[in-house]
Amino acid sequence: MQFVILLPAYVRWHYGRAIREYIGVAENILWFLWNVFSISLLSRTLLARFKRMGEPYKKGFDIGEFFSSLIVNIMMRLVGFVMRLSVIVVGLAVIMCSLALGLVVFICWLLLPIIVVGLFLFGLYNITVQS
Amino acid sequence: MTYRELEKNAKQFFPVIFLDRIIPAHQRKAIREGALIIGLIVALGLIAGAFAKQYLALGGLSLCASIWLTFFAMEAFFNSYYFEETPTVLREPLRTQHTSGLTFDVAGIIYRTPGSDATRGFLQSPVGRIVLSRLGIDTTTINMFLASERERIPRELIDFPGTGHVTLSRYVETLILSDKSLTDFFTKHAVTKEQVVGATQWVERLHDHEREQKRFWGRDTLGRVRGIGKGWAYGGAYVLAQYALPIESAFRSAFRDSSGDIFQSDVDIVEAILARSDEANCLIVSDDKDAAMELVAALSREIRDGTVLPTLEHKRVMVLDDNLLIADVGDKESFERRIMGILQEVITAGDLILVIDDLPAFLQNATRIGSDFGNILSEYIRLPSLQLIALTDSRGFHDTIDKDKNLSTRFEQMYLEQVTVSALIRFLAEQAEKLESEYHVFFTYQIIETLAKTALNVFNSGVRERALNILSESAQLAAGMRRKQITEEDVLSLAEDKSRITLTVSSSERHTLLNLEEVLKKRIVGQEEAISGISGALRRSRAGISNPKRPVGSFLFLGPTGVGKTETTKALAASMFGSEENIVRFDMSEYQSEDGLNRLIGGFGKDGMGLLASRLRDNPQGVLLLDEFEKTHPKVLDLFLQILDEGMFTDAQGERVNVRHMLIIATSNAGSDLIWDYLNQYKKEGKSASMSEALMSRKDDILDTIIKRNIFKPELLNRFDSIVLFHPLSQEQLVIVTRLMLGKLAKRIETKGYTLEITDELVQSLAEKGNDQRFGARTLNRVIQDKVEQVIADKILAGKLERGNKINISPEEIS
């Protein structure tokens, strides 16, 4: 008797609650990737000096010292910019790929009952009929 | 919510519970993994062209794939409901939660509930069996109960009060309240309702923890991976890295998962202090260093989980190894240069929270090499960009930090209160699970509860760590003896060893307690009321039914000199604590002046601790005798208000002193004149009642007069367990006392090889000579010393006695 309720309950779940939960898990994974590649933080600090490295501007005005510090600091910002931008670009690419993969998996999920039955019949056919 | 509604809501879980019943999780896993492995092997064979009939291999691969996909979908179906109520720290907006109003475990019980017998459903369910095994109740006992004649409670009568979803513990609590037969069953097995709920919560936490671990797709797990480039916006701390470690590595033991919520409110306070715009420095004052470090670790976990205030996001908590720093640099100049470099690095890095785990010790070590580190530190920590957490115990705080106002005002102080029983039970239960898998032993909830309560009762500081030591030692002990079950005796005997306090009642002590009146009457003459009052109070205490947060007993002995007050105290110490040596005696007349309190509990700014504090620390269990209590300073009396009430006091160093294992006896002559007056009147009237009874009838009048005379405040008198009136001794009682005293003397002489003959004439004569109403038995004692002992001494010295001789003293010789 319980078997009878199992199948319809599963089907209801597969095309209802499971889809909502799939989207929830996908959102978690995107959130994870967004955090792993620190996209918010790196975007906010895109032009900051790399690891706060640089030369402090000394007290009193010395044009040579000033430009020396300025160049070093600009270089550090540039290094920081390149590093951060690289991570952001890679991160966004990974997120895009994940989105695409997620879409494929989602379609597969929708077709899963057909795929399972198809694979089963195909397997059975190969083993029994062909041999 | 009614039971019917709950049942209706539970139905959505039934398909997966049914699924789990016909194909349990381990079988599903085995099938999934088997299909995957076979499929992979076949696929590899296909690629390598290893099969002659490729269509067969392809068919096999397809079948494996279909089986794997079927069981994958099945698992997803199961997990969808199984993880529904798993609590998470980080919010997941699209998560399906709280749709049913009950947890998976509760649905599992309802699924197994036959007809209307909810109790049977609970007791027969796997989770119910686990809860009962944690309470020390085995399956046979449960089955016997289920087979017995009992009243079944109709489901219609079960109602779940309040809002929120029905958790396992809420379900069980409601069930116990509704079903009297179940309550009686637990009572019969000495299990209280609170213990059932506590054990259920333990099982619930265990299940939640398992689910948290399995739910790898949740944000709580995914969020723990540290992002790339998180530190690029912050500076490096290369010098600091030589002398400090991240808290995760520095205090692995403190960095335990899921124990953070024990300190949740404290973590919030530290977080708020560190998030301030300036002077964001927190000084945690705690006598339990591990607890303080665990609090810091809990904060670090929150930072890692991303559940902190924005100003603390991405921060790293580093613990400075100050001993290594001082040992490495050696001299003042290098030390100051290095520490200033480190502090500057912390500021420029921008993502560091520095922890100094024992600030007073660091300050003292720096002073030894001639550095005023306190001054350097106060200059840096006033800067808004430095965030520092310093730890100190209360003694170090009072002795070192509080004296340096320049430094102490830069910190926001946070006092970490002693852990509560429920928090300690939770902590120990969590640790017990780890010990169980390590040593293959089993802890019941009652053992954990007993240990938590005992630890809080006997240890003043380091409670969590000491309790944990006892827990792991008991596991090792049982494992060594090839026992699975940890017993109450195991943990209590370990707690006794560590605290030097006797916690278990031995059979000889039990015998003494039951016959305490008889034991005391052998030494105390008359005073029947006093003896029965004291004996009753002590039995209540040792039976464990008195308040554990108060001293073992507290008595005020009122009466004239020499009537047996001190003798009663000695007799109690000897019978209850093994020896008269276990008396911590204070002559309170020595504490009459204003500085009396300072001398007892220690004074501010003075070295050393107070006499009362130090002697009680050395002797945590015994009798505290406070002679001439009325003569002490009112401030000292106020101290005893707290001691009698809470069984604890705090000395001048801020350390707590435990008095809960002491029997407190205060003696006083206050009201002796009234006792005399009443008894004289009683004699004149020639009433038939005994002296004790006559005095008891006037007790209230005597106490009222004592209060009117401002000797003791009523609130102090009320805090004693009993106020015992000692009456003067009658001539007949004095004769008995004389005989007892001579008996003691005879025993002393016997050790020298002589025998004292105690004749009735001698006893009568001494009792008459020693009859002094003002000084009671004291005069008698003096008479025995002056007359009898003197005569014996003279005889021995004059060579009139030889060893083995009987000493016979006639009344004439002592006249």
* DSSP strand count of chain B: 15
What is the average of the pLDDT values of chain B?
85
Alpha-beta content class of chain A:
mainly alpha
- Cα gyration radius of chain B (Å): 36 Å
What proportion of the residues of chain A form beta strands (DSSP E)? under 5%
Explain what this protein looks like in three dimensions:
The complex is a heterodimer of chains A (131) and B (815). Chain A is mainly alpha-helical and 131 residues long. Chain A has one domain. Chain A contains 4 helices and no strands. Chain A has helices spanning 2-14, 17-36, 39-44, 63-129. Chain B is an alpha/beta fold and 815 residues long. Chain B has 5 domains: 1-223, no CATH class; 238-415, Rossmann fold, CATH 3.40.50.300; 421-498, Orthogonal Bundle (Helicase, Ruva Protein, domain 3); 508-725, P-loop containing nucleotide triphosphate hydrolases (Rossmann fold, 3-Layer(aba) Sandwich); 731-814, Helicase, Ruva Protein, domain 3 (Orthogonal Bundle). In chain B, 57% of the residues lie in helices and 8% in strands. Chain B is built from 40 helices and 15 strands. Chain B has a 6-stranded mixed β-sheet with strand order 1-3-4-5-2-6, with helices on both faces. In chain B, strands 8-9-12-7-13 form a 5-stranded parallel β-sheet, with helices on both faces. In chain B, strands 10-11 form a two-stranded antiparallel sheet. Chain B is globular and about 130 Å long. Chain B starts with a helix and ends in a 7-residue tail after the last strand.
